[in-house]
Every structure is written in structure tokens, then in C-alpha cells.
Amino acid sequence: MTKDSRTRFYILYGLICLIWGSTWLVIHIGANADLPPFTGATLRFLLATVLIWLYAFYKKIPLPANAKKWGAVLLVGALSNGVSFGVVYWTTQYIPSGLGAVIFGTMPLWTALISHWALRTERLSPKKMFGIILGVLGIATIFYPQFAKVDSTHLWAMGLFLIAPIVSAISAIVTKRSTQSVAPLMLNAITTSVGCIILGIIAVLKEPWQDVSFNFTQIWTIGYLAILGTIVTFGIYFRLIKETSAITMTYVAIITPVIAVILGWLILNERLDYYALVGSGFVICGVGISLRM
Predict the structure, then answer these.
(1) Does residue 150 register a pLDDT over 80?
(2) Which are the contacts of 64, defined by CB distance < 8 A and separation ≥ 6?
(3) Domain total of the chain
């Protein structure tokens, strides 16, 4: 990368981390406004889908060129926006959100392990592994006080939650390996559509979506998550992953919980304790070590 392109990359990467870090806060606000989780997620993706497709048609963005490309894009959508989101929304009913953040924070580790085998250009080094483990340890430190809330009868939910970072890692690798010729906007349009369909089916089957009477809080949280948390962030993500490694892009899963904790402290007056400060330091050091490789 040139100096200018590197600066642009870091700005866009930081923007993804900031927005996705804020979505934890916005999802929490929406849930407290009595918006069923799967219904909220479906509406988020539905609004994003409509807006992206309208813009894609306006700009005359080409569809994937062949069946192989279509298969790869549909797989990315099913894994990242369908299975991963579905598992996260389902299991967080049974385990603390902090524990969920720790488990999902293992995504760079799974990405590194799988890409070492699947992508010849992304080999796993000892220093990179150390940085990833240090980052995950940092998240565990941040949310350590929540671990006392873990119910041993819900160990199955912890195991099920592990599916989310694994399939997200696979999705990142498929994106890097098989969708290079697909425009980022079209990638976003199709994958968001797939996520909307999968989550919508779950919402219809499992939640009283027809009883939802929308209020201002529910409407603005859906709009925020659709426009910033989906259209903007996934659009940038699919663009940047073409320029850098899949592992680098998945470090977002380690960074966003730190931002979520800081925003919770600044906006919701949540406590920022010793564990959060020390854990954040671990995360920053871990990501720094990994990104220098």
C-alpha cells in the first residue's frame, strides 16, 4: 500500500470498528424498548436490503458473473448474516452478553487456523497467534465480572454460540478466496437479502412479531442498525477485505467489544472498572502485535 492508501485503509477500518462497537449499545436500547430480537434483526436487514438494491440498480452494478460466484456469495450470506446472526440472537437469551463477546472474539483465531490451510498467502506465525490469544484474553478480562452469572445448565448454549465465530471465519475466508470479482455493493445486497430471509423465517416461527406496535425508539434503532450497522459497515468490510487479509478484517471482533464498553460508560453511565481498563490494554497490545506481522 502507498502512504495515502494506508491512511485511507486505517480510517475506514476504524470507522467499521466504531460503528459495529456502537451497534451493541443500539441493539441493547432496542431490546429494552420491547422489540423482539429476531423481529428487530429482520427489519434491520429488510430495510437495508431495499435501500442497497435500489442503489445497486440505479448504479447498474453487475450481478455475479456465473453460478460459481453466485454460490460463493450466497454461502457468505447464509453463514455471516444468517447462521451467525441467528445463533448469536438465539443463545444470548441464555448466556451473559459479555460471555458472548468473549466467545465471538475467538473469530480471528478460527480465521487464522482455517486460512492457514485454505489460503496459501495467509500463513499463521507464532507472533500472530500470540497476538490473537492476547486479544481474546483481553476480552475475557473485560467481561470477567459477568462470568459469575453463567448458569451451568446453559453450557449447551455456550457450545452452540461457538458456531457463530467459526461460520463467520469461514465466511470471511470464502469472501477473500472466491468473491474478488464481485462488486462490494452487490456482495452487500445479496448477503443482506439472504440474512433477511433466514432471520425472517425464524421471527415468523418463534416470535409474536404481529403484536409489535412501533414506537420512536424501535424505529430509530432499526434505522441506525440498517443504514450504519449494515449498509455502511458491510459495504466497507467487503471493500477492505479485497485489499488485506481475512485475518486482519476479523480483528474487528476483538476491537468492537472494547468500543462497546467505552460507549456504554459514556452514554449509559455503565461502570468502567479495573477489569475493563486492563482488558482493553491486552486487546490493544494483542491487535498491535498481530497487525505488525
Answers:
(1) no
(2) 70, 72, 73, 179, 182, 186, 190
(3) 1
pTM, entire model: 0.87
Phi, psi of 119 (to 5 degrees): -120, 115
Domain coverage including residue 31: 3-291
Decide if 232 contacts 51 (C-beta within 8 A).
no
Q: Which residue has the cell 467489544?
A: 257
Chain segment 90-139, per-residue pLDDT in tens = 887 788 777 788 888 899 889 988 887 877 667 777 888 888 899 999 99
- Sign of torsion, CA 63 68 74 77? negative
Rounded CA gap, 103 and 54, in Å? Answer: 36
Do 202 and 86 contact (CB within 8 A), yes or no?
A: yes
Cell triple for 111: 480465521
pLDDT band at 269 (very low <50, low <70, confident <90, very high): confident
